[in-house]
Design a protein that fits this description.
With 325 residues, the protein is α/β, with parallel strands linked by helices. It contains ten helices and nine strands. The protein has a single domain, classed as NAD(P)-binding Rossmann-like Domain (Rossmann fold, 3-Layer(aba) Sandwich). Helix content is 37%, strand content 13%. The strands form two sheets. The chain has a seven-stranded parallel beta sheet, with helices on both faces. A two-stranded parallel sheet has the order 7-8.
Length: 325
Amino acid sequence: MTTDLQPIGTGFTAAATATDVLRGVDLTGRTVVITGGHGRLGREATRALAAAGAAVTVASRDVDRAAAALDGIPDVRVEPLDLTDPASIDAFAARWSASGRPLHALVNNAAVLFTPDRRVDARGNELSFSTSHLGHFQLTRALLPALLEARGARVLNVTSGAARFGQIRWDDPAFAHGYDAGAAYGQSKRANVLFTVELDRRYAGRGVRAFAAHPGVVIGPGPHDASRIASYRQQGLVDEQGRTVIDPERGWKSIEQGAATLVFGAASPLLDGVGGVYLKDSDVAVIDDEVRPLTADSVPSDANSAMLDADDARRLWQLSEALLA
């Protein structure tokens, strides 16, 4: 097993698109499941993977809405899945198992962005953590037989640069005592990376590799509420006319550019033999342990050692099992 914690020199730049990354890659005969694969980054990843020949299944809470968004993209099917509902997750995995198909790539993409008020699922788990991590943790484990059958499968967990700053509240992951929207989001994104590390450690020897992907800061078209637009404008992400500012070298990307790292992790042959790593700009990210504070116009997003800590990764696995028991 090889785990690289430094760039591998893919030749792609921060401005590369999903089409660029998959150019010349033939995914005919490969199956892909992508959660939330009908909106923004997910839809572009779905489109690019299907265009390369993959048979893509999009998992969504709203099947009709997803089907409408994906109209015109061939070789895509939509299945119901609510990541906050354990029964819905089990039902999805049971349907896949009954189909007898191997699963070559699972893209855990769905997420909940900042929620100003604390919200929880039926088990009392904070909603960002429940959707972005716990639901995907249950789904991935339920689909492991199909992933193992593929003999060379990948699991791609979509994270963000917030993983660098996020902390797991080991004694209060549900934020029952003092809710903070940014901290809750950061916890869920840190969890995506730690889950990647432990999943790869457990299953790389059996042919399943795991990756965490940071797509960049992707605003994309609205609708956006007035307070969010004001925040974007303050950060320079949106100009005075409300137009998204694209500057990939600073990590501010279009949807097509943001989806590049997702499809890179899910399907690029350049990652064969690699796993358990954090991806950025369609390459393995550098490790940067310097203290780099958040500022209004700068959000450091390289990997640091803490977000890839093997002990924390094992501890999160155990915590996740307990929360889903």
